[in-house]
Amino acid sequence: MKKRILLVEDEPSVADNITYALTTEGFTPEWCQTGAAAQTVLATEEVALVILDVGLPDMNGFELAKTIRQHSDVPIIFVTARAEEVDRIVGLEIGADDYMVKPFSPRELTARVKAILRRTDRQQSGNPGNPSPRPSSPFHVDEARHLISYHGVALSLSRYEFRLCSLFVKHPGHVYSREQLLQLLWASPEMSLDRTVDTHIKTLRQKLKAIRPDQDPIVTHRGVGYALKEEL
Ligand code: CA
To answer: Could you tell me the fold of the domain covering 139-228?
Structure first.
């Protein structure tokens, strides 16, 4: 069965592009221009995921998300035109699953949608009480000691390698763009370059490879970003 994706976006040109990309990937997009219309859809139809613009004509996307969260755990991806809002999205406790800053490529957005749905499908089919990372994960994060071990071997990581690795381990399968990683993990993202992320990923990979030369748990999604393999 095709999954229905609710797109709440008041700009028709943006909505058109996203709708097209979602349809191409086999989803059934449902487009609403207002928060009120979105609430009607949510009340009456089964929706697998919500793509939610922060700036809507009748209410702000954060308010709508809070309303949705009162009765639903449906995954939410925020879309915002303002990079300053990213901090709010990340800091909010309404449980946003991801966010994108305009302009973005519809292809990148659909990649995120697929990654989130893979994750939620797995959670639903698997043991609901199963914590992440799963027991089979070769990684173990000891936050208190600021230590990550891989296949039982303690890694010697720089500050940013540690942050990257710990984020990946907590969210296996989640594809992070370079920009997101900078925003989430770096102290002054505006002073840093995308290449900074690549450099740290490279050294992190080398350290993992030194322990298990046959494995490369970090996946490069070309043109999109990086993720930790879901099955290790
Ligand atoms: Ca808008």
So the answer is: Arc Repressor Mutant, subunit A (1.10.10)
